[in-house]
Amino acid sequence: MTDILKEIVNVAIEGVKEIYQADISPGDLLVTPTKKEHKGDFTLVTFSLAKALRQSPPQIAASLGEYILQARSWVNDTEVVQGFLNISLSSSYWSSVLDEMIREPDYWKPVHAPEKVLVEFSSPNTNKPLHLGHIRNILLGWATYKMFVAAGYNVNRVQIVNDRGIAICKSMLSWNKFGEGQTPESAGMKSDHFVGEWYVRFEKEFSKEYKAWQQTAEALEIFEARKEQELTEEEFFKNYKNQYFNLYSLLGAEAKEMLLKWEAHDPETIQLWKKMNSWVYTGFEETYKKLGVEFDKLYFESDTYLLGKDIIEEGVRRNVFYKKDDGSIWVDLTSQGLDHKLLLRKDGTSVYMTQDLGTAQKRYDEFGAERMVYVVGDEQNYHFQALFAMIGAYGAPYAKGLYHLSYGMVDLPEGKMKSREGNVVDADDLIDVVLKEASDAASEREVNDPDIIRKIGMAALKYFIVKVDPRKRMIFDPKASVDLQGQTGPYIQNAYVRIQSILRKAGENNSGHDTYEPIEDEKLLLNMLSQCRQIIDSAVKEYNPALIANYAYALAKEYHRYYHDVKVLHAESEAAMSFRLKLIRVIGENILNTMDLLGIEMPDRM
RNA sequence: GGCUCCGUAGCUCAAUUGGAUAGAGCAACGCUCUUCUAAAGCGUAGGUUACUGGUUCGAACCCAGUCGGAGUCACCA
């Protein structure tokens, strides 16, 4: 497929040489799609040439326009508006674009070397079910995977499951103490929610214990001794919670003891841990299935948390890392504007950095990935900066291919999600709500195929999240997310459905080889389609699926308008009908393909 | 407080990376179904792009400052 933007740049360079005897490089020129209010398909911006050519932008535009019109048969017309040269391409050019798209079904895919890429996403803790934040993470990870595959990369999906540590011990302890042998089955609950309940129960019991403690003489003594700042008693104890957990709490002591037992491989503890985690995994699996995602490999923190120590030893030997007098090991990242970072505690135990270092190496060994993408929230920006800097300092061969796909938190209209305040939006609940909404709307239209309803509901939810630039913090309004009208997933699905409906009625209608002169709307649609490859390329390069979401919407919107204005099956001529059938088929496939990159499915009717 | 990021219509988001008169959707108000599916289309209204200055042919975007918000600054993840 010819790259028309490049062609325009080429002919412009040629023209400059011819008219001004001057050499310019492609970088000096900007070609963009023409704004809707002006006539033309592409616009050449000439301001940047004025200085070098010693002429005013409008003059340059005028003479270049004349040259281009002469030099290329596919240019139909040019028009100068200030320093902008608007170029209209010929009808036959646009017809040939359509033919090419049919001949080359991959016209929309950017082409990259088949580099190996690893995408890590989801990566939940195993003490409670997935929530809204995970959904954003998962959708971003999935879309990244899909678009990298489309661009020709060889991609593997992984997650690291945080299956050990104090959090899961809290759930375990709580179930042990209060659970009375209940199981998800006996409680009639989805199994990850069941485990989450025990975590919540722990926090409740702990709060009770903490409140009671605050009345004791011991607590008041501590408060009096430490209130150097002007904190109220309430504020003080709010801040003191963690220290209380570690120093005084009975429940805290029990949870920590359980963690120690776990680390000592105590059989009973391990058995309990396995049981509760298996409940969680069964539940996660269900949720992933509903979201339509899967993974190639799971890493478990319980397997990897001891990794990285040999790398650190090696680093110390090579003077990349250093040992303090107390035996702890550090890295100095001040040369890169960062801090000193701890890598190994003085007692020789790992911190997260240690583990991440080891895991990266392990993945490189196992997959040989030249690029590793970590989909992780932006509260960990600093951590990843440090991690990558460290791996760079260490000189690992995969250092330059590391990327943190950082995304903003998801807020609710009433503010931040806080598990403490119990306003966390649960993933399964959310899915149920959108499906219910889709079902209600569908029944009004006498649609009751559950598979169609599922596709519509999930499209609404997914599109609502994935259309936002990942880097930006976003507000998730549950009411707006179930909307089926306007800039939504179902709106785009509807464009697709309308196309399928026409194609079904048309049957095998491939006659009409007469030449047909496409109208403006059709040129515009073809222009949009031909930009698809560029858009996806940008999405890949910027790790930004929202670009694809916005593209698909713009295309669907344009199509809806076209659908309203132009008849396909009752076209004015055979040639027109044949052309339009081809056009809408390509549009439908394009919508299907681009939305698939976002994990959004298309129904055939709705 | 140090560092990082953000601030665009009442609300949720765009803006082809410095280009034309800053665009969509929602909400509001009108209009269009005997039509290839109205989950649609058309129109009206809504803006000093937080503020001030600077850079230049040209700034929401770059620079400086101010104000407001978020994140982070753990031997947490």
UniProtKB/TrEMBL annotation:
<dbReference type="InterPro" id="IPR036695">
    <property type="entry name" value="Arg-tRNA-synth_N_sf"/>
</dbReference>
<feature type="domain" description="Arginyl tRNA synthetase N-terminal">
    <location>
        <begin position="3"/>
        <end position="89"/>
    </location>
</feature>
<dbReference type="InterPro" id="IPR001278">
    <property type="entry name" value="Arg-tRNA-ligase"/>
</dbReference>
<dbReference type="GO" id="GO:0006420">
    <property type="term" value="P:arginyl-tRNA aminoacylation"/>
</dbReference>
<comment type="similarity">
    <text>Belongs to the class-I aminoacyl-tRNA synthetase family.</text>
</comment>
<dbReference type="InterPro" id="IPR005148">
    <property type="entry name" value="Arg-tRNA-synth_N"/>
</dbReference>
<dbReference type="Pfam" id="PF00750">
    <property type="entry name" value="tRNA-synt_1d"/>
</dbReference>
<dbReference type="GO" id="GO:0005524">
    <property type="term" value="F:ATP binding"/>
</dbReference>
<keyword id="KW-0547">Nucleotide-binding</keyword>
<keyword id="KW-0067">ATP-binding</keyword>
<dbReference type="Pfam" id="PF05746">
    <property type="entry name" value="DALR_1"/>
</dbReference>
<dbReference type="InterPro" id="IPR001412">
    <property type="entry name" value="aa-tRNA-synth_I_CS"/>
</dbReference>
<dbReference type="InterPro" id="IPR008909">
    <property type="entry name" value="DALR_anticod-bd"/>
</dbReference>
<keyword id="KW-0648">Protein biosynthesis</keyword>
<dbReference type="GO" id="GO:0004814">
    <property type="term" value="F:arginine-tRNA ligase activity"/>
</dbReference>
<dbReference type="InterPro" id="IPR035684">
    <property type="entry name" value="ArgRS_core"/>
</dbReference>
<dbReference type="Pfam" id="PF03485">
    <property type="entry name" value="Arg_tRNA_synt_N"/>
</dbReference>
<dbReference type="InterPro" id="IPR009080">
    <property type="entry name" value="tRNAsynth_Ia_anticodon-bd"/>
</dbReference>
<feature type="short sequence motif" description="'HIGH' region">
    <location>
        <begin position="124"/>
        <end position="134"/>
    </location>
</feature>
<feature type="domain" description="DALR anticodon binding">
    <location>
        <begin position="492"/>
        <end position="606"/>
    </location>
</feature>
<dbReference type="InterPro" id="IPR014729">
    <property type="entry name" value="Rossmann-like_a/b/a_fold"/>
</dbReference>
<keyword id="KW-0436">Ligase</keyword>
<keyword id="KW-0030">Aminoacyl-tRNA synthetase</keyword>
<keyword id="KW-0963">Cytoplasm</keyword>
<comment type="subunit">
    <text>Monomer.</text>
</comment>
<dbReference type="GO" id="GO:0005737">
    <property type="term" value="C:cytoplasm"/>
</dbReference>
<protein>
    <recommendedName>
        <fullName>Arginine--tRNA ligase</fullName>
        <ecNumber>6.1.1.19</ecNumber>
    </recommendedName>
</protein>
